[in-house]
Design brief:
This protein is of the alpha/beta class and about 475 residues long. The chain has 20 helices and eleven strands.
Length: about 475
């Protein structure tokens, strides 16, 4: 991989970017939000094979392959009705035959980093060398230095946050702590399953929540008390944040008597669409209140139409690449929450979006005003070279970098973590270099900002 990749072709900008990058390239990786399975570190056993590690769990890869007519069954993805029985080497060959699809995409950049920097393969993957790649990766994965904990240390990760359901026992985290390993892997409280009353299995999740706290949940008050109790447990296990997936970030507080009536209707499967929307808006207010009380940073990830492809969801379930962004409005939707808690400096709200049109119109101006609000980094479909560059250009003038939350990799693919951080560091250094070359900031300011964008902001935002 070229040492000046991503940097501006203008020589002056490129040299400044390279100098800035060298000053921060060795800083540890801070990973405050992601989806790596904590069982990897609890068990610390070798990965099965390159296909199960790099292809099957990665919805970025699955969605592009599917878009070109490759069926998920061909990739060894088990359906709800049938187990998968496809040779992993065969799946790898299909992937290599179609590797050209990823040229020019962030996935292609991340994979190039993984092959070159982690596995020391000097040539690009193609249909002809697929099995050479596969055999080399398979052999490497058998070595002790490719065990999950060894990779954590090799990647220089300082802290890694997983995302865990409110009813998760956190047994993997308990096992990690009991092992005396010095890696810091902490949970994040994700209550979607117990808040979204329209979700299949909501009643069972609430029942499970009651079992975990030791009392029957048969009223709104017992439900709220149980959530508060679980948040306490997550915090004792090291959690510093909560995470909320909503399509629309509408917030509004209900009277307790109204919340109780909706809760009872939901318990008896009689809640309607208006009930579920009102209850979710109310519970976002409650989650903010609880964050003021217990100090957990609140994250909101709105704007995704989950499982848009009905046929795919029906056959294979979620996380198969069928999620599509939707337009989002923040100024009115967050008005109630920000007026209740946005001026409280003990509260921290990190907001993400897939709707770039809101950067300059809404989110940057709000983050540049409310002390409690920070902008999360360019997320998901925008977590790309051009997407991250647009983000910096669109939000900085209204919010400054100091009202943003730094970078997080938001991945379930362990091996992509250093690739994602490296890409973001290069993009940020290139953007700063352009500012220096245009005499908007000087080199001292750029070097300080490079550190903040890499380590400083994320540590302050998440109290790490």
């Amino acid at each position: 991989m070229h040492s000046h990749r991503i940097f501006d072709p203008d020589k002056n900008v490129r040299l400044i970017a390279d100098k800035l990058y060298e000053s921060i390239r060795e800083l540890p990786l801070i990973c405050p939000h992601g989806h790596v399975d904590p069982q990897l570190f609890a068990r610390n056993i070798p990965f099965e094979n390159p296909t199960d590690l790099l292809i099957r769990p990665d919805h970025y890869i699955l969605r592009l392959l599917y878009s070109r007519g490759i069926r998920l069954a061909e990739l060894g993805i088990a359906s709800k009705d049938a187990a998968a029985d496809v040779d992993p080497a065969r799946v790898w060959q299909i992937f290599a035959d179609n590797y050209f699809l990823f040229h020019g995409t962030p996935t292609g950049v991340w994979l190039s980093y993984v092959f070159s920097e982690i596995f020391n393969i000097p040539e690009p993957l193609n249909q002809h060398n697929a099995m050479v790649f596969y055999d080399h990766l398979n052999a490497e994965l058998r070595k002790p230095e490719f065990l999950p904990r060894a990779l954590y240390n090799r990647f220089n990760i300082e802290v890694l946050t997983t995302t865990d359901a409110a009813t998760d026992s956190l047994s993997a985290h308990t096992a990690i702590r009991s092992s005396k390993w010095n890696g810091k892997v902490i949970p994040c409280f994700r209550p979607d399953q117990i808040i979204k009353t329209y979700t299949p299995g909501w009643g069972n999740a609430v029942q499970r929540l009651g079992e975990m706290v030791g009392w029957k949940i048969n009223s709104y008050q017992s439900y709220i008390k149980a959530i508060e109790e679980r948040r306490k447990y997550f915090k004792r296990m090291g959690a510093v944040s909560t995470d909320h997936d909503v399509m629309i970030p509408y917030t509004a507080r209900l009277q307790e008597s109204v919340a109780e009536k909706i809760f009872q209707r939901a318990l008896h499967s009689k809640a309607n669409e208006n009930d579920t929307a009102a209850f979710e808006a109310h519970m976002l207010m409650e989650m903010a209140r609880m964050s003021v009380d217990d100090g957990l940073v609140m994250q909101i990830h709105p704007g995704i139409y989950r499982n848009h492809n009905n046929m795919l969801y029906k056959e294979f379930g979620p996380d198969m690449g069928g999620d599509i962004p939707v337009q989002v409005e923040f100024t009115r939707n967050l008005h109630n929450l920000l007026n209740a808690y946005g001026n409280d400096q003990s509260f921290q709200l990190v907001v993400f979006t897939l709707d770039e049109s809101t950067y300059t119109r809404e989110l940057a101006p709000m983050a540049g005003h409310y002390p409690a609000l920070k902008l999360g980094p360019a997320w998901w479909f925008n977590d790309s070279i051009e997407g991250m560059t647009r983000y910096r250009k669109m939000v900085t003038e209204s919010s400054s970098i100091y009202n943003t939350a730094g970078f997080n990799d938001d991945t379930r693919a362990l091996l992509s973590i250093p690739a994602r951080h490296d890409l973001c560091r290069r993009i940020d250094c290139n953007w700063l270099a352009q500012q220096v070359a245009r005499h908007i900031i000087d080199m001292d300011a750029a070097q300080h900002m490079a550190y903040e964008l890499t380590n400083g902001l994320v540590k302050k935002t998440y109290n790490l």
